[in-house]
């Protein structure tokens, strides 16, 4: 019995096998938003003999947010909106942290948060590793670096120094993580507050920590060329930029179905090339038909 093998590559990058099996459909996840991918398929018989690959098809994933708030990576009483662009707090006078859905892994990354509601200045923004304690404030352990609206920086559960300006409802906060230089900086309402932390490295997630009931923040914009989980065999993630409101209605890019292959009719020669006609991401599955006249690679 034959099986299908689907190979995927970032445009200009190396190929990797995304699927091999007998299913007529497959889904490739954890792709990058706004990225072109090359796709090709081939048949492999029961003895492991592989036919030639089809001609390449090029698909592009939808552009979307560089990251969203991750309800599965949040402390107690943190709630995430349906579009995952806003986070709010349902408890009072207790600290709770939420992380973004994807880490910064390289380069200079910047995102802007809108403070929608907050009764006090007890609100943190910053970054953390995936090992951070989410039931304390941001900077309450070795795994987080936080800027509180009460005008101070925290790390290792210690107030590092006074910093910046107080912030609250109506303010926008730009967070800039430059992993080329290892620095974390902030800006309030477009005013640069300078470098807050140095010596940062590794996979770091955008993070927010709440203290008072009803606090709410929204991801407003982003420019994050170094955000993402690397696809095996592919180069570092490509950048994505956008304004929050314009993309909230988009389906999540990582749920795009890339390809569906129909088995060739009985009697078709083993190893015949497959010509794929792949739709735009998000449209749905596609069909691939044998094309004996297409030259093999």
UniProtKB/TrEMBL annotation:
CDD domains: FN3 (cd00063), SPRY (cd11709). Residues 1-64 form the Fibronectin type-III domain. SMART domains: SPRY (SM00449). The keyword Ligase does not apply. InterPro entries: B30.2/SPRY, B30.2/SPRY_sf, ConA-like_dom_sf, FBXO45-Fsn/SPSB_families, FN3_dom, FN3_sf, Ig-like_fold, SPRY_dom. Pfam families: SPRY. The keyword Coiled coil applies. Residues 47-226 form the B30.2/SPRY domain. Keywords: Coiled coil. It comes from the Eukaryota. Residues 269-297 are annotated as: Disordered. This is B30.2/SPRY domain-containing protein. It comes from Heterosigma akashiwo.
